[in-house]
Amino acid sequence: MDLAKYRILFVDEATDHLVEMSRALADLESGEPGSSSDEAVDTLFRMTHSIKGMAASLEYLSVSTLAHKLEDWLEPLRRAGARPGDLELIHEAVRALEGMVVQVSETGEAPPADESMLARLGAQRGAHEPAPSVPAAPRDEVRAVAEAQAAADALDLQPPPQRSVRVRAESVDRFLASVGDLMQRQARIEVLHRGMRHWELPREFTEELAAMERVVRELRRRALDIRTTPVRRVLERLPGIAGKLARALGKSVRVELAGEEVEVDRAVLDHLDEPLLHLVRNAIDHGIEPPDERRERGKPPTGLLRVSASRAAGRLELCIEDDGRGIDVERVRRLAVERGMFPEAVAEDLSTERVCELLFEPGMSTKKQVSEVSGRGVGLDAVKRTVEGLGGSILAEAVPGSGMRFELDLPSMVALQRVLILWVHGHRVALPVNRVDRVIDVKQGELERVGNEIFFMFEEEPIPLLDLGEHLGLGPLQPDSGGNIVLLEMREFRLGLLIDRAAADQEVFVREVPPVLGGRKELGGVAVLPDGTPVFLLEIGVLVERFN
Fold first, then answer.
1. Does the pTM exceed 0.85?
2. Cβ distance 497 to 485 under 8 Å?
């Protein structure tokens, strides 16, 4: 039997099981003894058993052997419970299984099992296992029965309670692109229909057109459901990574996750692994203090790292915060002066908020010694580039001695967005409506000029104004001849965009910017309007940052 075609299924299933095991390990590290700890050990055992059975049935014998050893080692823990010293070996065994599954995915062959790992699992098993009260069956017989049962479990053909099917990501993307094309065609037909004299069309045509619109709308909803996935996929591996790094640095950390069930566009989640990993590493290495130092500061010896997700107004908000030492504001000021970013007199007057923004500059690091974890100044600027490339923004907040907080604001759906169409010098561009506060007639604002900058008064507050035509290279607009101001609000900062006029808002299917324009960070995507005209979607976060 050709088993190669089942490799993808094995890798997907095994990866899911390994993620569950990482989460169970995190529960063991942070939980109290009792039912929750017992449940975590039971989860580890069941996931290991499943991996063993699948690997054996597909003849990945080395993977099956390691999983079998781990399963044997976990069996006594189900009765006696896990001890603190057990967790490190379980972590190493899970990482070893992960590496073997990755190699199966890449090469189609299972690598040899780590003999030292097998020996350690075999040697420590006796420390947990009580003396048998009845004669044990021969080892080979036990192994044969266990492997046969595991293979039977893996190949069980009983239908699961909830049916599911695995589809390649590329197939989903192609399907969604086709749905987007269908939406554009349907919208174009609607425009043509509205422009025709209705008495020239039979009533049945209008009814069928309305029915088609309902079908396309339902298809769009279901297509977006396929594209969304819980943010748990990128969060659940963080506790294990944070715990392992903390132990390597002689620290102790407890990781709390919140909002794991929030669902967002898979295209967003696919790019968040590395940014979140950078932020977690920074929190452990830069922020969380060693236990002795935390005691001296009146803190519990175990640090807290909290990662939360929420969704509001079509945006995904991720927050990573720790209760560590925060940042050395004065050191960042000195580094800014040493690098020629500011004169010393100016650096002394920088606010804490502005100092935190400097952390995202390339090469900026407060770490005095370079390590494998951090200190090279290549982490946070890469995080910022990735977040902005997704149409989002990142904000850092610090309270010296009390911790650090990073807030990521991202679109929860990049494929379908509601936008406001703007006219600028005869061209149309689009803005996400969830960042638009209101549209104001220029005559209602009192424009004031201070040097090269323009402000307008709104509700007795001076609002800075950006000439969008000039910014996009289309030429300056003439506010005295009329026009509109689009008032944007982002993280308590207000900015007005000077435009010719604003049209109605509408829902559009957004595609990626062509590679030739990839360097224009203020362009977040391309959409085709119902009349067939392509328009660029502007990234408000980039506009606000460049204005500042």
1. no
2. yes
